[in-house]
Amino acid sequence: PEQLYGRNEYRECIKHLCQKDEVLKKVIDEVGPCILKEKTDMFEYLLEAILSQQLSVKAAQNIHSRLIALFQGEAITPKRLLQLKTSKLKSAGVSSRKIEFLEDLATKVMTGNVDLRKLKDKTNEDVITDLCRVKGIGRWTAEMYLIFVLNRLDVFPEDDISLINAIKKIYSLRKDTSLKKIREISNKWTPYRSIGCWYVWAYNRSS
User: Fold this and answer.
1) Please, which pLDDT band fits residue 123 given cuts at 50, 70 and 90?
2) Cβ-count burial of 12 within 10 angstroms (0-12 exposed, 13-18 middle, 19+ buried)?
3) Among 24, 32, 90, 119, which residue's CB has the most CB atoms within a 10 Å radius?
């Protein structure tokens, strides 16, 4: 499978990105050290990703907090999630559609249809294929999982509108710049496109 990266192994990545892309080098200099950290709870990450779809960050955080409270301090597991009554989930602000998605996720993880523990040994495309079996999970969510949970080095989520718009802004590109041109920029970051994306996101949040 594609190489994984650990928490403190960014020196070679940063050196490569700075040598290959002068514009990104300025971004890196301004943002500072990469603080991308491994997320260890695979199931809860996907749960939170589903909850946050089409919601503001604040609204998603509020619903997630209320959902966590339903577990009364216990870990959120597929089994415990399935044991919650629909009325309880709705009381936390989870829509009927997302309840369907969460229950499908929990069921597939419990039955082994999607084995989260084995994903770390699979290629990026195989991980995406597996995760997209779950209702409510598409390629973008699977790519976020690759970057933030499995810590894969070379992922470029080209369907991420905020990422694409931020690249256009940073590189002073026209709004109608083609995706082909965006890919050409990201290809300079290979094999560390995930780190390049992280810096673009971080810079965009701070600017």
Assistant:
1) very high
2) exposed
3) 24
Instruction: Give me 190's structure tokens.
Output: 């290979």
Please give the Cα distance from 41 to 88 (Å, whole number).
Answer: 23
Q: Are 37 and 6 in contact (CB under 8 A)?
A: no
- To the nearest 5 percent, what fractions of the chain are helix, strand and coil? 65, 0, 35
Count of residues in the chain: 207
Angle between helices 42-52 and 96-111 (to 10 degrees): 160
Tally of CB atoms within 10 A around 60: 18
Q: Which residue in the list 41, 130, 160, 176 is annotated as catalytic?
A: 160
82 φ/ψ angles, rounded to the nearest 5 degrees: -70, -20
Q: Is 159 a catalytic residue?
A: no
